[in-house]
Amino acid sequence: MVNPHLETILPSIFLKVQEANYERERLELKDGDFLDLDWLKKGNKRLIILSHGLEGNSSRHYIMRPAKFFSERKWDVLAWNCRGCSGEINRLQRSYHHGDIEDISVVIEHALAIGYDEVSLIGFSMGGNMMLKYLGVNADTLDTRINKAIGFSVPCNLEDSSRKVANGSGRMYEKRFLRKLKAKIEVKAHKFPELNLNWEEIKDFHDFNEAFTMPVYGFTTEDEFHEQARSDVYFESIRIPTLVVNSLNDPMLGGRNFPYQYAEKAEKVWLETPDIGGHVGFTLHGDEYSWMEYRAEEWI
User: Fold this and answer.
1) Are 249 and 2 in contact (CB under 8 A)?
2) Strands of 242-245's sheet in order across
3) Do 119 and 49 touch, CB atoms closer than 8 A?
4) Is 68 within 8 Å of 62 (Cβ atoms)?
5) For residue 119, what are the β-bridge partners?
6) Measured between alpha carbons, how far is 228 from 213 in angstroms, rounded to an integer?
7) Exposure letters 114-126 (e unless 16+ CB within 10 A, then b)
8) pLDDT values of the chain reduced to their tens digit, one per residue, 300 residues
9) What are the distances in angstroms from CA 282 to CA 46, 167, 177, 248, 251?
10) Is 47 helix (H, G, I), strand (E, B) or coil?
11) Ramachandran region of residue 44, left (φ > 0), alpha (ψ -120 to 50) or beta?
């Protein structure tokens, strides 16, 4: 097998993607917060909506690459940023988490109101999990213009993914994510003194969840949070053709993130588990695009 860490890390550090010429829209939310949406519009009647991973944004290589790819193939593209991920800290205490589908629901509803004939969803890592849960929860009321979905490197069982990155070589990913999360919340603490915690004592996701996630979002236990964040339990509910692609050498996904048993029972969800790819890697040597863009186009 190709080294999973190199497949994951090298594209993130060294891959240079031509800057997407986004048009930014600020979407004001009913709770007083905002979301920044980045568009590539060419007047097409079909739309791709891209959802990024934990502490990602619309400028990450794995988002700009498919944005450019599909824009060149006569799609409009919307790459939305989770709260606090667009380069400006959001206004409220809360931000986002793996099981939070409130904001992706608002973004999709907003995009549909523009009048597109066809909408396809592509989610990466956490964004893929949000997308899958959204499709399952809203299965009975889903707009018929949403017709295909695909997720790459999806932690559809967050508890198992958290366990994977808490041990061995996975710790480097956990530390990186925590560094970014803690930095944002330290900024928020100037406005919300109750967030002025002893961050030196927060060493892992478990500590972070107890200090921030659980009190801010109202979870009683970490198990409750993990259960609420799962998307695999929604596979059977999903009613549009949906593909989940998780590579077997993904350094952030434990065994329960390859939920063959849920996919086998689902009529509209297919699970692909290629041997290699890392975590949102899937690099093709000498190609400006990755295997993910070509597989997404083929699926959609």
Assistant:
1) yes
2) 23-28, 34-40, 76-80, 46-51, 118-124, 146-152, 242-245, 269-272
3) yes
4) no
5) 47, 146
6) 12
7) eebebbbbbbbbb
8) 467 776 776 666 656 666 779 999 999 999 999 999 999 999 999 999 999 999 999 999 999 999 999 999 999 999 999 999 999 999 999 999 999 999 999 999 999 999 999 999 999 999 999 999 999 999 999 999 999 999 999 999 999 999 999 988 889 999 999 999 999 999 999 999 988 888 788 999 999 999 999 999 999 999 999 999 999 999 999 999 999 999 999 999 999 999 999 999 999 999 999 999 999 999 998 899 999 999 999 999
9) 26, 24, 21, 12, 13
10) strand
11) beta
Query: Which tokens hold the place of 35?
Result: 């979301």
The set of residues, in sequence order, having a beta carbon less than 8 Å from that of 282 and lying 6+ positions away, is 7, 152, 247, 276, 290, 291, 292, 295
Place of tokens 């997720």: 151
Paired residues of 245 in beta bridges: 152, 272
- What is the distance between the terminal CA atoms of the chain, rounded to a whole angstrom? 28
What is the DSSP code string of 214-256?
HHHHT-SSHHHHHHHH--GGGGGG--S-EEEE--TT-TT--GG
**pLDDT at residue number 12:** 60
Distance CA 176, CA 161 (A): 15
Which domains does the chain possess? 4-164+232-299 (3.40.50.1820)
Helix (H, G, I), strand (E, B) or coil at 32: coil
- Structural contact between residues 247 and 6, judged by C-beta atoms closer than 8 angstroms: no
Check if the beta carbon of residue 277 is closer than 8 Å to that of residue 265: no
